[in-house]
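[SOLVED] Need 3D model of a two-part complex

Original post:
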Amino acid sequence: MSIWEYANPKKFMQTSAWALPWAVGLTVLCLGAGIVWGFFFTPDDYKQGATVKILYIHVPAAMMAINAWVMMLVTSLIWIVRRHHVSALAAKAAAPIGLTFTLIALVTGALWGQPMWGTWWAWDPRLTSFLILCLFYLGYIALWQAVENPDTAADLTGILCVVGSVFALLSRYAVNFWNQGLHQGASLSLDKEENVSDVYWFPLLLCIAGFVLLFITLVLMRTRTEIRLRRAQALMARERLA
Amino acid sequence: MMPDLGKYAVAVLGSYGATIALIAALVALSFWQRGRAKRLLAEVEARAGKTDV
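Solution:
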């Protein structure tokens, strides 16, 4: 069995119909457990106080804002190279989810930054590249809406996605590229010295798993919607020709 | 059993509130679009006499 079988809309609809209830259940379980554990059962940090609880939404949202764009890049490239419609529709479906995660990261970052840094916003490399990523998401969604022919829209948005990937990468590695600005290094690291303490680490892992599952759930659901719309458009076009 | 958030209550509760509002809006939008697409496809398929998706 080949992975390209799922590029068939009918096969995708069948498989996603089976997977969606599991994805919803696991999302509620992981996200609920992670948030409750992190919010109610972890101590205040000796430096950050209670604001450390913002970590459980800010870090997963920021990670998924970047990963959503990476997923859109991969599916856009599949469309550009192999012309599978489901992959283009999956990229289109993921954009509003990525935009929402980017907004969550920006808002929670500002709310954390005000008491910790003394400012809501700074033109720091990571913050600035995240703001540009947010604008790329808006541009990507607007481009899909602006172009009537869906194949042309998929081509143009695919190119935009490749260009925007530079900022998705910058958002992730800006702290390492430019050793300046207010934003600290990564909260998660394979280096035990750099990693957050275990008391925050385990609920954070659950929250990250929850955000990943939330992303998968919404992408499956929204891609199914896009496939239905595309089929309806194709049938309406056939009606007009008849 | 609400933890004591002290002087950071606004920042912490504001962050959780904004996150819940944004995710709820996205989920509501996704369900609304799903319902609209299902209705449209059902209408068009009924006209075309086909139901294979």
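Edit: The mean pLDDT of chain A is 90.
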